[in-house]
């Protein structure tokens, strides 16, 4: 739960009440959180991401959530190559 009665981006997208036990709340509580979580849900599925986050140590969950969001957004932009397209573009720039 993010604050006084407000839901995290994941719970807003899933249209459910955000509780204090919400695994997504610490990682999807910013302005674009609902949009980013929509991509995460479409690419990986909310249940899979929830299970993944719960199996990680707490200190690693934030990095995992950022990485999952980045990879999901990249996969939405480029369904074939995903984030690898960005890596290729950076490699070409460095030549």
UniProtKB/TrEMBL annotation:
One BP annotation, GO: hormone-mediated signaling pathway
Entries under Pfam families matching the protein: LOB
Top-level taxon: Eukaryota
Alphabetized InterPro entries for the sequence: LOB
LOB domain: residues covered: 6-95
Family as reported in the entry's similarity comment: Belongs to the LOB domain-containing protein family.
Protein name: LOB domain-containing protein
Organism listed in the record: Punica granatum (Pomegranate)
Organism lineage: Eukaryota, Viridiplantae, Streptophyta, Embryophyta, Tracheophyta
């Amino acid at each position: 739960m993010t604050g006084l009665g407000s839901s995290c981006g994941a719970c807003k997208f899933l249209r459910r009440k955000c509780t204090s036990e919400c695994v997504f709340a610490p990682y999807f509580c910013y302005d674009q959180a609902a949009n980013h979580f929509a991509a995460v849900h479409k690419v990986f599925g909310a249940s899979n991401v929830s299970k993944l986050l719960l199996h990680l140590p707490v200190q690693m969950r934030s990095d995992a959530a950022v990485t999952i969001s980045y990879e999901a957004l990249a996969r939405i932009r480029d369904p074939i190559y995903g984030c690898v397209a960005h890596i290729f573009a950076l490699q070409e720039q460095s030549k």
